[in-house]
Design goal:
heterodimer, A: mainly beta, 22-stranded antiparallel barrel, globular, B: 3 domains, 19 helices
């Protein structure tokens, strides 16, 4: 990690803020200080205590005649490890997002430049340093495009990495859209992905939504991913979902990775879920899926009941099951959130699971977490959490988390005239 | 002592940021009794005249001091500032608020025949602030807006949905196992997500290469939320990964696994921490590495994905002790020119 690079990014953010100083504006964001003391070696042989500081900002301006709806979004963090760091790096830091976006051509075209998340069609969700464009031409028909360098951790750079993609779509309504897309990605100069996709989410009537996706790898000339899902809101109290999907796990790896040669090529899953709101504050949820992998079959399923109190608290119980050809586990959870006067909140989370076969000569895991939070001023909140347990990797596990967060809102006064 | 200094510095950093960015709520409240003015037959237009021609909410619709002094000049002259200001020492004008709705007062006033009470059914009194409209109920009495609401065309009225604590409507219900399903919606209709969620919200999980701490650590006080990695996920992550090898790769780069495994020193050749079971190299063994690699290659990639230096290639090259990695009929489907431009082929050839 290079702090010089970090400083350069911070200066660039300041300059962008100053540039966008025209028109009515508002800003939201948060600053969070987090101390996390946790075990880092099996059996708790080393307790590491890093202190984190993160800052997030979303500033918006009406903009001017050419560039409108200007928005600057940034989130970055730094770490200082107290005591002896396990990985011999006392400091670290990175930028999760830093982009400026705005609309041009009478708000018809959105442009975004900087570190961002590219989401859509064949691109999937890719963190990118680059540019994105998104516009609607007429009657909901439009296009999106992305180009840039996939993000590398801690400001490092990778030569020969590049990604571009585009998507054309017809957006019928808020919840009904179909699209066709492609992605072309290079890693170290070699083709990592070259896929096309057709996808859509459609709500023909208010109670029913159908979602489908098919992604084809042009390099491999086979299906990378296919999915069909239907959601039916049978009544205000009952929601049903059924889905079936096929994935090629090796095509989720870069083709330049030698492991894509050896990886499993097909995985199928089919199942569904049901949500029933028995009473207004009580909801019951259940899901089950049949899994078919190369080594055999498996199941994934669970049930959960949640009771919400009028004061914003909630209490719940959950049980889950996962089996695959080699191992599996059964999981049970109890959790509760209780709100007290003077903006005090206490939560409890009890989590236990039982393995079918041993891992590290253990078949059981139990972790209990207790937290106490206090919103002591408008926008300010402090939280202390303690987590204790015994797991396959830690005979005794203790974690303490302290967090102070400040959320600011409008109108905020920012440097550079961005009010 | 050193830790205390560091903590103090962090708190000071937060406080400095708060000071620079400004958090003051402003203590003064202008005490305006709507009911008393109504009794005195003061029409709305008397004080809110700019509203009559306003096509957006970006203007100044609340009266300035000069407007008040048209009637109350004597009170100010007598120094009775407290009649209107709750905090005389910090007396100021009405605070400006940026518009959050697309709303054309001029057009609506024509429709309601200049009867403001059609929408503004209750008005604030001193120290008794109220919502000046009944929210959606005020708008949805009109058929046109009711249709827009049903069609979830939120941005017709709302300028900035991301700043609202909206509960998702039926069509984009977040109930049940939405965490596993949300990618379908996002990839097919990302704008629907962006209507309510900032990118920083997505990056809580999807900033796989830059993330500060896992989201379940940052939000440890939200046990009601579904997280993939809740509590002791470490102990069972290998099972989840084997049940769905692509699950990890949807959010994480291979380097994420590699970084953690190397950080924890769980890698081949690390003596007691060697993760490979007995029989790993023996064909026919139930633990044979070839079978495991086919089943979940990402677990191998976590430690061994080092390109041409990979352990796989060192054995699985043509003529190597691992045998020919090419499946039957490989040569009939691929020619040598194709191989020159393929990153996987050049790992062994050329």
């Amino acid at each position: 990690m290079s702090f010089a690079n970090g400083l350069r990014l911070a200066r660039a953010a300041g300059s962008l803020l100053a540039l966008a100083g025209a028109g009515a504006a508002r800003a939201d964001g948060s600053a969070t200080t987090l101390l996390d003391s946790r075990p880092y070696v099996r059996d708790g042989g080393h307790q590491e205590t890093p202190l984190y500081e993160s800052f997030a900002l979303s500033a918006r301006s009406d903009g001017g005649d050419v560039l409108q709806d200007v928005r600057i979004v940034a989130r970055a963090w730094g770490r200082l490890t107290l005591g002896t760091p396990f990985d011999e790096h006392r400091t670290a830091g990175d930028v999760d997002s830093l982009f400026v976006e705005g609309r041009v051509l009478k708000r018809h075209l959105l442009l975004r430049v900087g570190r961002q998340l590219a989401v859509g069609g064949a691109v999937r969700a890719t963190q990118l340093d680059g540019i994105a464009a998104d516009g609607v031409v007429r009657n909901g028909i439009g296009a999106q495009a992305w180009a840039g360098v996939p993000v590398q951790p801690r400001f490092s750079q990778a030569g020969g990495d590049f990604l571009t993609g585009a998507r054309v779509f017809w957006r019928h309504a808020f919840d009904s859209e179909v699209g066709a897309s492609f992605v072309y990605a290079l890693r170290k100069g070699y083709i990592a992905r070259r896929d096309v996709a057709l996808e859509g989410s459609w709500t023909p009537i208010r109670a029913v939504t159908v979602n489908a996706l098919g992604q084809w790898s042009l390099e491999e000339a086979r299906l990378a991913e296919a999915r069909l899902q239907g959601l039916w809101q049978a009544s205000p109290k009952l929601q049903l979902v059924a889905d079936v999907q096929r994935t090629a796990p090796d095509l989720f790896l870069d083709r330049t990775s030698i492991f894509s040669v050896f990886s499993e090529e097909r995985r199928d899953e089919a199942g569904g879920e049901v949500v029933y709101r028995l009473l207004q504050p009580l909801s019951l949820e259940g899901d089950w899926h049949f899994l078919k992998v190369e080594g055999g079959n498996g199941h994934r399923g669970g049930a959960r009941a949640t009771f919400r109190t009028p004061t914003g608290g909630s209490f719940g119980a959950e049980a889950r099951l996962l089996t695959e050809p080699d191992n599996g586990y059964k999981l049970a959870r109890l959790f509760g959130i209780r709100r007290f006067p003077r903006n005090v909140t206490v939560t409890l989370d009890l989590d236990a699971y039982w393995l079918e076969r041993q891992i590290n000569a253990e078949k059981r895991s139990f972790v209990a977490t207790l937290t106490g939070g206090w919103a002591f001023l408008p926008g300010w909140e402090a939280m202390l959490a303690g987590s204790f347990g015994t797991t396959p990797y830690f005979e005794r596990r203790t974690e303490v988390i302290a967090r102070v967060a400040w959320r600011f809102g409008v109108p905020a006064r920012l440097p550079g005239g961005f009010r | 002592m050193k830790y205390l200094l560091v903590l103090a510095a962090a708190v000071a950093a937060c406080a400095t940021a708060a000071t620079v960015l400004g958090t003051s709520a402003g203590g003064d409240e202008i005490l305006f009794p709507h009911a008393r003015h109504k009794q005195a037959n003061v029409d709305c237009i008397t004080c809110h005249e700019p509203v009559w021609d306003a096509k957006t909410l970006a203007g100044d619709f609340l009266p300035n001091e000069a407007k008040c002094l048209e009637c109350h000049k004597a009170k100010k002259a007598a120094g009775e500032c407290a009649m209107c200001h709750s905090d005389v020492r910090h007396a100021g004008p009405w605070p400006k608020r940026p518009p959050r709705l697309n709303f054309d007062h001029a057009a609506h006033l024509d429709r309601v025949k200049e009867d403001c009470s059609v929408c503004h059914k209750q008005l604030a009194e001193p120290r008794k602030p109220v919502m000046i409209t009944a929210g959606h109920a005020a708008c949805l009495t009109c058929h046109n807006h009711s249709k827009q609401y049903d069609d979830a065309q939120c941005t017709t009225c709302h300028l900035d949905l991301a700043s609202y604590p909206l509960v998702p409507v039926t069509e984009v219900s977040h109930q049940g196992d939405f965490l596993r399903r949300h990618g379908n919606v996002a990839r097919a209709s990302g704008k629907s997500c962006a209507a309510c969620h900032e990118q920083n919200f997505c990056l809580d999980c999807h900033a796989e290469k830059t993330v500060m701490v896992p989201v379940e650590t940052r939000l440890v006080d939200r046990p009601d939320r579904r997280f993939i990695h809740r509590q002791d996920f470490l102990g069972r992550h290998s099972i989840d990964a084997r049940s769905d090898p692509a699950l990890c790769q949807r959010c994480h780069a291979v380097s994420s696994c590699e970084t953690c495994h190397q950080h924890e020193r769980i890698s081949a050749g690390a003596s007691a921490r060697n993760p490979h079971p007995p029989g790993w190299v023996l064909p026919g063994s139930p633990q044979f590495h070839g079978t495991e690699a086919r089943r979940n290659i990402s677990s191998c990639a976590a430690c061994h994905d080092q390109g041409e230096q990979s352990n796989c290639v060192s054995c699985h090259k043509v003529g190597g002790i691992g045998g020919d990695p090419h499946p039957a009929g490989f040569r009939t489907r691929h020619d040598i020119n194709e191989a020159r431009n393929d990153g996987r082929c050049v790992a062994c050839h050329f």
